[in-house]
Amino acid sequence: MAEAGLERWESHRLVFEEYLEGLTFTEEPELSTLQEAMRYSMLAGGKRVRPTLCMEVARIFGAEPELALPSAAAIELIHTYSLIHDDLPAMDDDDFRRGRPTLHRKYDEAMAILAGDAFFGEALTLITVHQQGTPEQILAVVRELADSTGVEGMVGGQVLDMAQTGLGSETDPRTLRMIHRFKTGALIKSSARIGAIVAGASEPESDAVSEYAAELGLCFQIVDDLLNATSTTEALGKSAGSDEEQGKATFVGVFGLDGARREADESTARALAALKRISGDTSGLRGLALFVRHRGS
Amino acid sequence: MAEAGLERWESHRLVFEEYLEGLTFTEEPELSTLQEAMRYSMLAGGKRVRPTLCMEVARIFGAEPELALPSAAAIELIHTYSLIHDDLPAMDDDDFRRGRPTLHRKYDEAMAILAGDAFFGEALTLITVHQQGTPEQILAVVRELADSTGVEGMVGGQVLDMAQTGLGSETDPRTLRMIHRFKTGALIKSSARIGAIVAGASEPESDAVSEYAAELGLCFQIVDDLLNATSTTEALGKSAGSDEEQGKATFVGVFGLDGARREADESTARALAALKRISGDTSGLRGLALFVRHRGS
């Protein structure tokens, strides 16, 4: 993490955590349990990849990173809701996340479903009430989130992922890529694009940074699969080899270890190539792409 | 339903059903099951109160009712998602809705959670891509939905409702009103307000029609409680007296039969008074308010 530019991420993260910590949704005492449940989930830490990416992209295109905070927080709330719902007994049935009970274990299933649901409306409030910009810009931010959270986005990706579980290596490469493009890639790409929108970047530069982010999301997933297949449980902090046990569709299962490593390298190369089309200081994005590729190794 | 203006609702409903029938979300074969599940829920019929209210309000303020269709459909998709999630085993645990298996019975719980989730993104796409209007108008539509679907809206109302179940008549009147203002009132109010927004109505007239719709939503709920307490199961088409059995917080439980009837009359009077502040032809809205008050009696 000593590479030039990477210290910027920690600075964005601290600013973002402080903003998130200050968010409340109601002063009605009757609704305090719902609000506590939402804050329990959204303040659980984590790398905050999406919001800090949004802030860094805004910075690259000449805005103060703080300008992007309302939209960056909206993205993180939507990401948080997707984790809450994915953890539910009817889906991945996880009891723990980041070392703490998942929301349906801490409260109950109904609260977990509803807290997740409430995050979407609150995310929209952040954007439409608190994000600075022209109506055209704010609308473009909303449209970007609409794109990445519907059927051909985050939700459809989760449906595909669940449908493929059990099939393992029988999943075809096209479907595997589609799962991850929709499930995690879409919102990561939107994070970058929204940073570009609020900073008023040109269309070609927005496209370049979107392309970078799409590859970043893909590479992140491939490396996740590689780590799951090759690490010890101790080094990983979660059960190593669990993907294979569950018959999950993974890049290692479909392409083999060497094939998956090659896919990750190619994806990283495409991410770095996309950055060449941007005139600003992209050292932070370059550092992030290399970090994502080589983490854990 | 023979009262002047009421035939308009049927005309709006037919136009709306045709629009909804034409909505698709993806052409990816891998996502066809998700799309089928969503269409199963959204095409289950029903009165379509919210979208037709939106269309009628747009008409009153001088627009073609068809202008409001994308936003009206977005509202109905959000309403549909709330029904799907409310029916889940962890919430109301209903096996049937409108005589057909609920979505989690027809498919499974995971699909029901995810289909519900997907509706929100698709609703935003309808508004941001297909609704005609200035960027300011479209943004006002999104902000309206943000308001009515978050913590102090539909989701918070459902949380409050579940928290009060079992307490029955011990619920205080303020909490009871809050439950319904948030749970169903907020989205019904937004339906009217969004019709006014897309038609470019003035602020005072938008406020008047919002007030009307808030009272309409309240009266609808009070009459629902009255019917549940006084009808036979046969006449109601669902289990009569089920609210009391489940210990639900109802207007009849809190105010008694006569008190609840008085609340309904007062609410209707306020709804009709609000209409007087609108210069257009509000006979359809007037007829709807009277129909809602006297249905089943």
UniProtKB/TrEMBL annotation, chains A, B:
EC number: 2.5.1.10
Any coiled-coil regions, as ranges: none
InterPro entries: Isoprenoid_synthase_dom_sf, Polyprenyl_synt, Polyprenyl_synt_CS, Prenyl_diphosphate_synthase
Cofactor annotation: Mg(2+)
Classification via SUPFAM superfamilies: Terpenoid synthases (SSF48576)
Gene Ontology MF, one: (2E,6E)-farnesyl diphosphate synthase activity
One GO cellular component term: cytoplasm
Alphabetic keyword roster: Isoprene biosynthesis, Magnesium, Metal-binding, Transferase
Keyword Transferase: yes
BP GO terms, sorted: terpenoid biosynthetic process
UniProt record similarity statement: Belongs to the FPP/GGPP synthase family.
Name recorded for this polypeptide: Farnesyl diphosphate synthase
